[in-house]
Amino acid sequence: MSLLPYFAPAKVNRFLHIVGRRADGFHLLQTVFQLLDWGDTLRFELRSDGRIRRATVFDNVAEDEDLTVRAARLLQRATGYARGVDIHLDKQLPLGSGLGGGSSDAATALWALNQLWELGLTRAELMALGVKLGADVPFFLLGQNAFAQGIGDELSPMRLADTTFLLVLPPVSVPTPAIFRDPELTRNTRVVKIADFSRAGPLGAPEFVAGFGHNDLEAVAARLYPPVAQALAVLRQVCPGNSMQAEVRMSGSGSTVYAVVDPGQAAALCTACQQALGADYACRVVRSLSVHPVTGSTG
Length: 299
Known about the structure:
By secondary structure, the chain is an alpha+beta fold.
């Protein structure tokens, strides 16, 4: 039995461009993912009977639809492993928030159970399983920040400077399919290369240039979900004196919006946003991670 905590961090999209659409309907995108120091926590209690079950009760997600349960069952089927597990989930990241919570939980479950069940799968093998659960899952298994292309599963590791973010979580859950189905969604943004948004960092590794690009999903989400538009408007009003103001945008398909802020101003800006938006919104200061605390390991 292991009840050790396994962290599942959130992410933000520093930009998100939709550059096309495949014949099967999946959208082609380019984005930079950055890990955050806020997230969910999973614990695993091994079973001898082969059953996989979620020990934590959630009213809004059925057990069979939970990505952690689906990840464990997928891993069990793929390897023929006979034993099971009870999954305990301390859920902090809201559903439909654009922070990758479900995908991150699934990735942490795959990684942790590969260790706890002593299966010996490689990172590449876990990533190949992860993409069957969701396009963002391979990123969380990569273990570090990255530039993503394709449907989000073609990953190039990337160095990003340590960054402080002010997150605003509106009181609405945004369903990703509704955003991608919208006829007004821009689907032909120009394809970019890493050189377009990076500079040479230490040892020649590419380093992201803050403020580059935009989020093509933002205008649609703001139109369909007014609380997203309100959060963006308030962030842009509250942060005009902030030197990082060029980067105020939505993460993923929403609903979370963020501003890159100076660490010394973060607490005051957070308080100002909370006062302007009211108690229905949640404002939070978070910091970036350079390495995933779980999947960034070599074990």
